[in-house]
Amino acid sequence: MVSVLGSEEIGWGGSGPLAVIAFSFVACKQWVDQGWELEDNPVATAFEIFWMFFEPMLFSVTGAQIVIADLQPQLVLVVAGIVITCVVLPWMAKATVQAALAPVALDEVRKMTGSEEHMEQLVKYAEIVINVCIIQTKAACTRRLETFPQAIDS
After folding, report:
1. Sign (positive/negative) of CA torsion 79, 52, 8, 14?
2. Cα dist from 2 to 6, 9, 56, 151, whole Å
3. Average pLDDT, whole number, for the chain?
4. Integer Cα distance of 29 and 31 in angstroms
5. What CA–CA distance (Å, rounded) separates 86 from 13?
6. Side-chain-side CA neighbours of residue 49 (13 Å)
7. What is the mean pLDDT of residues 70-82?
8. What pTM did the predictor assign?
9. Greatest Cα-to-Cα distance within the chain, rounded to the nearest angstrom
10. Keywords assigned by UniProt (predicted)?
11. How far is it, in rounded angstroms, from Cα 45 to Cα 111?
12. How confident is the model at residue 68 (pLDDT cuts 50, 70, 90)?
């Protein structure tokens, strides 16, 4: 919380979520160095359960920024192409990181100054980045939810 909220206060908007990701990597590495198995680590298990509940909330709030009626047909085609050709990528944590960091682009653009025409174009670009990241993450979540019952059975 300190990383995320503190980075906003000092003007480093995107560094907070990035710090959280870096800290989790360092913690995981230290646990392995201490002899913990990744699958048997009680802290990792607790966070896994925690994340199962809060991941949908994170993506729901982030996805609320998409207005379906405002999407351009070209964007829909590009996103459809990405989703179709990148079936394997949603399994990676990359989609989660993208969805968490994508709104930072829009925040940074909104902080900028310039001609109104130029700013409108930059906002459109940032919104495209957010839309692509969120749609890709939605595909990842959908795929995970489809395989969840199989994971429980095995």
Report:
1. negative
2. 5, 10, 23, 35
3. 74
4. 5
5. 29
6. 6
7. 78
8. 0.38
9. 58
10. Membrane, Transmembrane, Transmembrane helix
11. 39
12. low
